[in-house]
Amino acid sequence: MTSRPGPLRADARRNRERILETAVRAFAEQGPDVAFDAIAKAAGVGSATLYRHFPTREALVEAAYRNELARVCDSAAELLADNPPDWAMRLWMDRFIDYVAAKQGMADALRAAVASGADPFAQTLDKLGTAIESLLRAGAEAGLLRSDIDPLDVGLSLTGVAQVTGTPAQRGRAGRLLDLLLDGLRYGTGR
Fold first, then answer.
1. Is 61 helix (H, G, I), strand (E, B) or coil?
2. Residue in 111, 104, 99 with CA at minimum distance from that of residue 69
3. Which terminus of the chain has a lower count of CB atoms within 10 Å, N or C?
4. CB 120 within 8 A of CB 113
5. How far is 44 from 47, CA to CA, in rounded Å?
6. Tens digits of residue pLDDT in 79-91
7. Cβ neighbourhood burial of 128 (10 Å; 0-12, 13-18, 19+)
């Protein structure tokens, strides 16, 4: 009988988070073959710590991607707690654009992970759909957003915006397009 590992200690959790954040940047800037030692050094941890958390490159790539996905999806509830639902939606849209940019930066590393048999995308659509649906539902209940919107339509629209504004120089345009999208989500609410 094997036992499940317990929750990570606070310092181990911080190390893991630093490793994942550093890995996203490193894969985006240096490609899929960036040295593990370079990631460990940039994260301020030893190589052994990195390997203890992520014994293979594929495990690190998959965890880094899923961490970015969780960050954007989990932020929906946080934004709703602190903002009116329509503004929470708009703020979340910005975070989605950042998530897509991180994913694009990691594209080569993600392709290599998939080629090795990993499936970092297994729950992506479900998690994103749930986050978008929660934002839309809260907005509709508050009378700030339309109630007839399919979350997948919003996700596809956001992906389109991210694709055409995928460079830092285009970030201003992305914001303007997101404002237009939000206006479309408000149409018919009288706002």
1. helix
2. 99
3. N
4. yes
5. 10
6. 999 999 999 999 9
7. buried
